[in-house]
Design a protein that fits this description.
The chain folds into 2 domains: 197 residues, 3-Layer(aba) Sandwich (Rossmann fold); 219 residues, Rossmann fold. The chain is 43% helix and 14% strand. It is globular and about 75 Å long. Bound molecules: uridine-5'-diphosphate-glucuronic acid. Uridine-5'-diphosphate-glucuronic acid binds next to helix 9.
């Protein structure tokens, strides 16, 4: 089997590398010449655990190559994956499909023999049909079928999510395309991975419905956490108590500063717009989007409150700025709301993140960036933990106290135990757990 992967962003690169690990010959195509040159030198444009090794091994084995030459890559392929970006269109929340359609136009000119054209990018319902029309219009005699194969990769755990997925979703009307896709995913039959075959439209909706449901679950537990703070309950015990019910499930019930990243914020908004236009609004999702936006802003107030309501002339240390650990991705990270709000309230901000500071430097002004977690704490009036990187989970608390002006910690990821923190002499604030609870269910 031979595939072409159009787009070497996060999804294209991970998917291409993983298919090559399955033994498929993969050609990753990108218009960006300098990106391809860097990839050829073994330099990856993103941070994803294990990806550098996977890429190096498969490049070494001759199964994975990078090129700017779309024509040759597509002509030789049994399947062409479109994995280009679909950013939010400015202003209205719709996904911008111009890169997807441009890729379809280019593919149309170069198809040779039967080819499955697969949309891997997250695309609104109807996009697959449009891709089909574009190719048919440009190349009326081409032998091809369009198929939707959404990705369910979490940043930071993407390789495992690809190799051991809960399911694979394949949407197409064609038996022939189904056969090609089944063959591509054959290694997963070993693990008896369920493959959901469905129509193009249904497959496209499954992707949005999955992300939206997960975003809703997180938002639900975030609101329950706020309630816990008011009534003296412990949100971790609530999450455990409801999560053990198999109908609910324990995952994605961890409270925090609001979901971020390149997917949930964009996809929830896009589905809201699609549903409104279809005359079937998703009011739950509309509310989720609102609550999550407000939540990120309200986290700055939480930090200010923990500093006795006033951060003017205070120094706040921020640990973690990426939207979650094990990624350098800053897109829609809560830090992008929290840090400017603290600065607007008069605080001086020092910050550290193991991987995110490259981009963060461009996005957050007037921050003193530090090389290490402990260095960030020097002279700080309070420390706010924004991302649950492993290296922040077991800080030497005595050392932390000795470095700070006052031992105030705001833990927006609930990684410390409230009892131990109070016993260690911290003025400790977390999410949805009253001071003095054990956090035993964590
Ligand atoms: C998400 C989905 O989990 C993937 O299945 C999907 O393929 C991907 O979007 C995508 O559409 O490409 P990702 O954005 O990488 O993956 O990150 P998640 O691990 O899902 O986390 C998203 C956000 O939710 C983060 O800000 C995280 O901190 C937050 N979160 C997650 C919580 O606040 N609580 C939780 O319990 C879980």
């Amino acid at each position: 089997m031979r595939i072409a992967m159009i787009g070497t962003g996060y999804v294209g690169l991970v998917t291409g590398a993983c298919f090559s690990e399955f033994g498929v010959d993969v050609v990753c195509v990108d218009k960006d010449k300098s990106k391809i040159e860097r990839l050829d030198r073994g330099e990856l444009p993103i941070y994803e655990p294990g990806l550098d090794e996977l890429v190096a091994n498969n490049v070494g084995a001759g199964r994975l190559i990078f090129t700017t030459d779309l024509n040759t890559a597509v002509a030789d392929a049994d399947a062409v994956f479109i994995a280009v970006g679909t950013p939010s269109r400015r202003g209205d929340g719709h996904a911008d499909l111009s890169y997807v359609y441009a890729a379809a136009e280019e593919i149309a000119n170069t198809l040779v023999g039967y080819t499955v054209v697969v949309t891997k990018s997250t695309v609104p319902v109807g996009t697959g049909r449009e891709v089909e029309k574009i190719i048919r219009r440009k190349s009326p005699h081409a032998e091809f079928h369009v198929c939707s194969n959404p990705e369910f990769l979490r940043e930071g755990a993407a390789i495992n999510d690809f190799m051991r997925p809960d399911r694979v979703v394949i949407g197409t009307d064609s038996d022939r395309a189904r056969q090609v896709m089944r063959e591509l995913y054959r290694p997963l039959h070993l693990f008896e991975t369920p493959i959901v075959f469905t129509s193009l439209e249904t497959s496209e909706l499954i992707k949005y419905a999955a992300n939206t449901f997960l975003a809703t679950k997180i938002t639900f537990i975030n609101e329950v956490a706020d309630l816990c703070e008011q009534i003296g309950a412990d949100v971790h015990d609530v999450a455990k108590g409801i999560g053990l019910d198999g109908r609910i499930g324990a995952k994605f019930l961890h409270p925090g500063p609001g979901y971020g990243g390149s997917c949930f914020p964009k996809d929830t908004l896009a589905l809201v717009r699609t549903a409104q236009e279809a005359g079937s609004p998703l009011r739950i999702v509309e509310t989720v989007v609102d609550i999550n936006d407000q939540r990120k802003r309200s986290m700055a107030d939480k930090i200010i409150k923990a500093c006795n309501g006033d951060v003017s002339d205070k120094t706040i240390a921020i640990l973690g700025v990426t939207f979650k650990p094990n990624t350098d991705d800053m897109r829609d990270a809560p830090s992008l709301e929290i840090v400017p709000a603290l600065q607007a309230a008069g605080a001086t901000v020092r910050a550290y993140d193991p991987e995110g500071m490259g981009d963060a430097r461009q996005l957050l002004a007037e921050v003193t960036w530090c090389d290490k977690a402990y260095e960030t704490l020097e002279g700080a009036d309070a420390v706010a933990l924004l991302t649950e990187w492993n290296e922040f989970r077991s800080l030497d608390l005595e050392r932390v106290k000795s470095l700070m002006k006052s031992p105030v910690m705001i833990d927006l990821r609930n990684i410390y135990n409230p009892v131990e923190m109070v016993e260690s002499g911290f003025d400790y604030t977390c999410i949805g757990r009253p001071k003095g609870t054990s956090g035993a269910a964590v």
